Amino acid sequence: RSLSFEKTLRYGINDELTPEDKIVSHNNFYEFGTDKTDPAKNAQSLITDPWSLTIEGDVANPRVWTVEDILKEFPLEERIYRMRCVEAWSMVIPWLGFSLANLIEKAEPGASAKYVAFETLYDPEQMPGQKSRFVGGGINYPYVEGLRLDEAMHPLTILSLGLYGKTLPPQNGAPIRLVVPWKYGFKSIKSIVKIRITDKMPPTTWNQLASNEYGFYANVNPNVSHPRWSQASERRIGSGGLLSAKRIPTEPFNGYGDQVASLYEGMDLRQWY
Amino acid sequence: MVLTKHKVWLTKSALHIGCALPLIWLYIQIELDNLGGDPVQYIIHFLGMGVLHTLVLTLLISPLAKRFKVGWLLRSRRAIGLWSFAYLVLHIFSFLAFDLLFDWSLLLSEIIKRPYITVGMIASIIMLALALTSPQLIQRKMGRRWQLLHKLVYLVAILGPIHFWWSVKSGNVEPAIYLLIFMALLWWRRPVKQISRRSGLASTK
């Protein structure tokens, strides 16, 4: 279904867009299997309408939002962002979404609010990976993620409901997902049902699974390699075939450093990877 | 004698076809664009699994030959070993070509820095040595040293699954199964080792 949006924001990116067919057929969404092609195969029957998103925790106005309400309340923008996977491949994706800050402000976080916790739908009947450890890669579901409140309130952080002018396909996290472009892709949690404002750093799925490999912050950083591969460069998935891809240097904060580096002033990013 | 020759020929043909089919299948899938938007990881993984599967086959040959008293089966072992090496070459080539896009310096630094690639590389060097010394002429010239060298395949059979284990992001179930299979195979071969010399000789006479 096509979605209307107000304007296109490129945030200084001139990179060529990754074709839509590649964005929707190469996904990590372990709830539907661990192969990159599994989500496109197995997620098509996911019921995304009706869908509700709860915002709760340390807020003055907790609320259960429906997707319709969200679309009515928050005008969508097209945001063209780089997406850098922790596995060292990347895409350029035209998301449709709105700043997460707008939704959080409506909830009015309390004085002790410091972090934001996110949760993906838990429904083993619909998500085969949640039923079987073998299909789901041994993750303890539901998938959870988290941001510091200031990261969540940053204007670059969006909740996305679409890409390439249409509603999100299930494999890309329909009906609503997070996009944090300066962090590795696994932070951008899919098919969100709950957002909780809290005073404690929330647990995050990949960190729980392998804390030496995936930190809470997971900012894109060419200088801190993953224990099993270098993060200094990335394979940009473009429009061509197998050998036409390019290996390009990875930029600190995925190229958004001038906008977000100040969030981490004084922090040792080798320690807080 | 003629009969054995026939059996060897038939077995080898079946093995060659069996080992080539997955490659043909992979090629067709790539051509048909059936492997998703970015098949790189899939291709590398698929070829790596090919190495493991052919390795299982080579290790199965001699216990099977013994168990069913078909000594001639041993004569197809070299062919599978070479298929294993072929899958290995393609596995490394696709990593270098499709993932690293021929960034040789990155390849070198990854071999040194990443334990799972280091392990894979050690196994690969052994496999290279085994492939290079596989012609019968060299085998004859090397004599007992050939036997010793080719025992290193047991090391490959351990390093391979470890490389697989360390390479996965999560879900160690599948690598664990492979490690177990290889351990079981090595175990199966061990106790019958001494008898194998004699019965192996007897059956080829």
Automatic annotation (TrEMBL), chain B:
Keywords: Cell membrane, Electron transport, Flavoprotein, FMN, Heme, Iron, Membrane, Metal-binding, Transmembrane, Transmembrane helix, Transport. GO terms for biological process: protein repair. It is found in: Cell membrane; Membrane. Residues 53-160 form the Ferric oxidoreductase domain. GO terms for molecular function: electron transfer activity; FMN binding; heme binding; metal ion binding; oxidoreductase activity, acting on diphenols and related substances as donors. GO terms for cellular component: plasma membrane. The keyword Cytoplasm does not apply. Binds 1 FMN per subunit. The chain crosses the membrane at residues 9-30, 42-61, 82-102, 114-134, 146-166, 172-188. It is a multi-pass membrane protein. Pfam families: Ferric_reduct. Its cofactor is FMN; heme b. Its main location: membrane. HAMAP family: MsrQ. Part of the MsrPQ system that repairs oxidized periplasmic proteins containing methionine sulfoxide residues (Met-O), using respiratory chain electrons. Thus protects these proteins from oxidative-stress damage caused by reactive species of oxygen and chlorine generated by the host defense mechanisms. MsrPQ is essential for the maintenance of envelope integrity under bleach stress, rescuing a wide series of structurally unrelated periplasmic proteins from methionine oxidation. Belongs to the MsrQ family. Heterodimer of a catalytic subunit (MsrP) and a heme-binding subunit (MsrQ). This is Protein-methionine-sulfoxide reductase heme-binding subunit MsrQ. It comes from Ferrimonas lipolytica.
